[in-house]
What we know:
This protein is an alpha/beta fold. It contains eight helices and seven strands.
Amino acid sequence: MLTGKTAVVTGSTSGIGLAIAEALAAQGANVAINSYTDKEDDHAAAARIAETHGVEAAYIKADMSDGAAARDLIEQAVSRFSAVDILVNNAGIQYVAPVDEFPAEKWDAVIAINLSATFHTIAAAVPHMRASGWGRIINIASAHGLRASPNKSAYVASKHGVVGLTKVVALEEAEKGITCNAICPGYVLTPLVEQQIEDRMRESGLDRREAELKFFLDKHPSKQFVTLEEISGAAVFLAGNAAAQITGTTLSVDGGWTAE
Length: 260
């Protein structure tokens, strides 16, 4: 149980981030969820988490492409909850193009949100974790943090960077009660991927299962998508006491992708 702990989850008003925030709250953690949109639905999601799980929850707007805003997210959470015990870096974007055609501004945006924001939130959170003598940093990397695919130069570079950063932070904080690990998902069945499946079906004329196998699950020996529950369950495990001596490593949740 994580009763009394406070978690900050970036990019968490939908998909993987929201599932992780919900799962941590179900274990008793207070949670700060985040996006850059600041919509009524964002605040409603926090209110629903609080009511459902009997914890404190708040929505905090922050544009994770802005390093100062990423750091301020942590300070706002500390001001609101008096602590940040668990940090889950989930915010991320993708862009696909050959390296010679990759727009420079897209490269900058992917690196800023996927990698630099992770650095900034960790740098801001670590002093608070040191002060309490306990902390869990969980970075949502990707199978692409361990493997490469064509046309994904910025994404692959950013996720490899996240894995490297994870190792460095783990070593720096190893004697301070703070762990830092990366979860490396394969293809997760999120609302965004659902839309991509439908797009592929429409473009190719394939049925759903054929489109899944051809365009997504060819990477997964299991031939199954990863579920939100499987990713959030991994995060809960890494946040708990059973994972106290697991640090500086990657946890692949990818249907066997990186075993090949």
